[in-house]
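User: Let's play a game. I give you a shape written as tokens, and you guess the letters that built it. Ready? Here's round one.
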């Protein structure tokens, strides 16, 4: 039985005050959640969020990580630093990093390996653009993105990782994949992993991301191969985020 997960990707949003308010709101509603809850603040707020988490059971993640451990890498943040401040998870391969910061399959695979080497757990994002979906090559694209990490770190590495299927056309657009569309790709992903290792595939958590919100979370989360969500916009409001974290399982 896979433990569901709901992770909030706050992206480049927040202030000292708003982060405090958001964490107070989430903590107040943790009693009703039915998922492992993860928050991924901007780097500068990680220490204050770690303090706020206390013994609430909320897990901490980062949105990006350097593949190097230390040294002359201006502006970067390393795995040992993230561990030092209490992170457990790191988002790797988000479509915004792929599209805006030149992160290729090769770069995402190197970062994925660095996250694991540091004893952290990657939340590895994959997903097709609208153009790719319209061309009918969704499975080819998602398959290629997964192959990048399978070829570099092997299927066993997924025992310590989470995948997030995030169709690029659904991220921040208000256009959610239908539960059927999402389930179809999630099943494809699980079957692909199962070709290499059935046990790893069965235990692997695959999150859906892309305009998941308080209104559509229950139906998406009830799909057999959807194990929770990676949430952008709706993770910035405690009330909405908590509805997603508490949404019923089918
Ligand atoms: C994301 O950025 O990972 C995401 C899913 O964003 P949103 O929920 O805003 O579409």
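Assistant: Ready! My guess for every position:
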């Amino acid at each position: 039985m896979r433990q569901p997960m709901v992770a909030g990707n706050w992206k480049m949003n927040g202030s000292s005050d708003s982060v405090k308010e958001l964490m107070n709101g989430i903590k107040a509603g943790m009693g009703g959640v039915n998922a492992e809850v993860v928050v991924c603040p901007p780097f500068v707020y990680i220490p204050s969020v770690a303090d706020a988490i206390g013994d609430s059971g909320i897990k901490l993640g980062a949105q990006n990580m350097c593949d190097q451990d230390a040294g002359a890498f201006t502006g970067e943040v390393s795995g040992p630093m993230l561990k030092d401040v209490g992170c457990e998870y790191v988002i790797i391969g988000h479509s915004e990093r792929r599209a805006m910061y030149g992160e290729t399959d090769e770069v995402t695979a190197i970062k994925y390996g660095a996250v694991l080497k540091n004893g952290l757990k990657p939340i590895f994002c994959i997903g097709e653009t609208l153009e790719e979906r319209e061309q009918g090559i969704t499975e080819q694209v998602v398959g290629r993105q997964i192959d990048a990490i399978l070829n570099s770190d092997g299927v066993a590495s997924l025992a310590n990782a989470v995948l997030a299927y995030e169709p690029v056309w659904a991220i921040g657009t208000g256009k959610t994949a239908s539960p059927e569309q999402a389930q179809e790709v999630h099943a494809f992903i699980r079957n692909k992993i199962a070709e290499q290792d059935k046990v790893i595939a069965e235990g692997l958590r695959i999150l859906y991301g892309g305009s998941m919100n308080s209104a559509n979370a229950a139906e998406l989360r009830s799909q057999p191969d959807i194990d929770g969500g990676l949430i952008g916009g709706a993770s910035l409001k405690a009330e909405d985020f908590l509805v997603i974290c508490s949404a019923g399982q089918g």
